[in-house]
Amino acid sequence: MTKVVVAMSGGVDSSVAAVLLKKQGYDITGITMKIWSGEDSCAEGARHACYGPGEAEDIEDARAVARGLGIDFHVIDLRQEYKTTVLDFVCEEYLAGRTPNPCVRCNRRIKFGALIQKIRDCGIAFDYFATGHYASVEYHDATGRCLLKKAQDRAKDQTYFLYSLSQEQLGVSLFPLGSYTKEEVRQMAADFGLKVAEKLESQDFVPGGYVSLMEKSQPGPILDRQGNLLGQHRGISGYTIGQRRGLGISSREPLYVTAVDRERNAVIVGSKAELYRDELIASELNWIAIEKLNEPASVMAKIRYSHEEVAATIVPAGNDRVRVKFSQPQLAITPGQAVVFYQGDIVLGGGTIER
């Protein structure tokens, strides 16, 4: 019988994924990551997040679902790996004036990386690794590559967060929810009698935001594009491109963060019009549908998860970089964030916005 390890977060999606696989006849084992160290301060009353004090409750919810299914359940301790690979990285990026995407890094390095390795180290045998992500994987005979494809529920599609997975990782991955809508998943959870059927989704990466993890960065100037001093910021780690609220300065026209200058420890502000750009450079590329980009390609590109895709041309720019030229200017292109390239419902690949 095919053995599948299911990463169970204690939420409705991964719980339904486990039930579906069990009903399809797979021999499944439930796994939950332990990543909360208990050392970081978080906002009072904040909702559950990926990392935070709600983890103990989430683990017990996952354990209860596994018990109801009559399957083995294991908690894998990844606290140290998560701190060094995700938390420290996020802090370093913000302090450098960039806005990182912790979910992208966690998926490749932790959930589909360190977790899978620790499962193997524990002697737990499996053929596939399943999660509750809204996406699908399909093997393409002509190219011999695993393709990452959008979920049927476009509003919940999570391929943006999965673009950095390797061929090896995709080759052992199952996404049982790829052909379902969120409404259907919640209904199935209710039909299956899961107590997590109405559980709210996790919000953000940490309760109250990443600032709760960060050593206080140094105050500095808020400048306009001409270098005029408009005010003082509390530390560049608290600002991101496109931000309008919390600047603490008054002006006739609304002002937005247009750049974060680490060298000058300065936050640069300007009008909304100054936030629009029609191209970017991306690095740290990962190609899924192709081995490498050798010539210009027409794609639909997405510069953040909540952003609409837009037509673009991607061109090799040497040294593992691409230049992305958009068909129309985009608002608040942000260094550190991911840009993901699509052709139809297939993820061609993606990278990190450099500038």
Quick take:
By secondary structure, the protein is α/β, with parallel strands linked by helices. It contains six helices and 17 strands.
How would you describe this structure to a colleague?
It is a single chain. This protein is of the alpha/beta class. It is built from six helices and 17 strands. It has helices at residues 12-23, 55-69, 79-95, 102-121, 167-171, 182-191; strands at residues 3-7, 27-34, 72-77, 128-130, 136-140, 145-149, 173-174, 220-223, 229-233, 256-261, 266-270, 276-287, 297-302, 310-316, 322-331, 338-343, 346-353. The strands form four sheets. A six-stranded antiparallel barrel has the order 12-15-14-13-16-17. The chain has a five-stranded parallel beta sheet with strand order 3-2-1-4-7. The protein has a four-stranded mixed beta sheet with strand order 9-8-11-10, with no helix packed on it. β2, α2 (55-69) and β3 form a beta-alpha-beta unit. α1 crosses α6 (182-191). The longest helix has 20 residues, at 102-121.
